[in-house]
Amino acid sequence: MAERIMVPVPPKAIIPSRDVGKRPILETHHLGIEFGGLKAVDDIDFAIGPSEICGLIGPNGAGKTTVFNLLTNVYQPTRGTILLDGYDTKGLSPDRVNRMGIARTFQNIRLFSNMSVLDNVKTGLHANMKTSFLSSITHGFGYSKAEKEADERAIELLKFFNMEHLKDHQAGALPYGAQRRLEIVRALATKPGILLLDEPAAGMNPSETAELMENIRRIRDEFNIAVMLIEHDMNLVMGICEGICVLNYGRIIAKGTPDEIKNNPKVIEAYLGKKAE
């Protein structure tokens, strides 16, 4: 397990010491969005190192999923800047941002339930399949070759989670934990530089959560990518994250290592409420 030493970098951010001198995979500067004049999130500044596992936590309604929607351009920000591997994503479509290197899972699982496990993973590979328009129409040699390569790559990714034996099963018929894993596999199929996980442990039992923690570390190490997660399971967050940002009422109230965050009075107050005078 990598040593969790965090160091300050602009803008008011921290990254792992091993990522110093490398360009952050993701940065936000004064990021915010309004809905009907209401500031849902405001003045969000952070940087994520290219090999970092970080957490975005906060009470229900703090704005965590809204931040993920901004990072993936599901929402366009009212103000501020998002830099993905140094490039401004302003005005780009979600699929274009995905091809630039950001992938995500969702709080509510979004699989193609009636399709096979294998075909769900192949949807993630689609953007990287190289076939001509004519070959796609006629299902010629180029198309067949690309399909064969996609099948092989999809099975390779499924093996990461020991799911290759489920390749022909209907995705919607899988147990809940397996559906969560499949959604992560499909996201990895897009070859991201950073993976955003929205409550990946939701609905999992303790043994599944422990397995998930180990898999997140393996994803970071074997795919050489960063991981950012929203999670309410504090044992998972404190056990795996190197840096943590805490949101409350749409603003960051604290950043730091797990030890710093769990002892921060503002964080304790946000979760437990202010002690009566």
Q: What does it look like?
A:
Helices cover 36% and strands 24% of the residues. The chain is α/β, with parallel strands linked by helices. The protein has helices at residues 64-71, 94-100, 117-125, 133-138, 141-160, 176-188, 206-223, 234-240, 258-262, 265-272, and strands at 6-9, 13-16, 26-35, 38-48, 53-57, 79-84, 87-88, 102-104, 194-198, 226-230, 243-248, 251-256. The chain folds into two domains: 1-101 and 192-277, 3-Layer(aba) Sandwich (Rossmann fold); 112-190, no CATH class. Residues 131-138 have low confidence and may be disordered. It has a six-stranded mixed β-sheet, sandwiched between helices. The protein contains ten helices and twelve strands.
Question: What labels would you give this structure?
Answer:
single chain; 277 residues; alpha/beta; Rossmann fold; 2 domains; six-stranded mixed beta sheet; 10 helices; globular
Shape label: globular
What name is given to the CATH topology of the largest domain? Answer: Rossmann fold
Residue share in β-strands: 15-25%
Give the end-to-end Cα distance, rounded to a whole number of Å. Answer: 43 Å
What is the CATH class name of the largest domain?
Alpha Beta
Averaged pLDDT, please? 87
Strand order of the largest sheet: 8-9-10-5-11-12
Structural class: alpha/beta
CATH homology-level superfamily of the largest domain? P-loop containing nucleotide triphosphate hydrolases
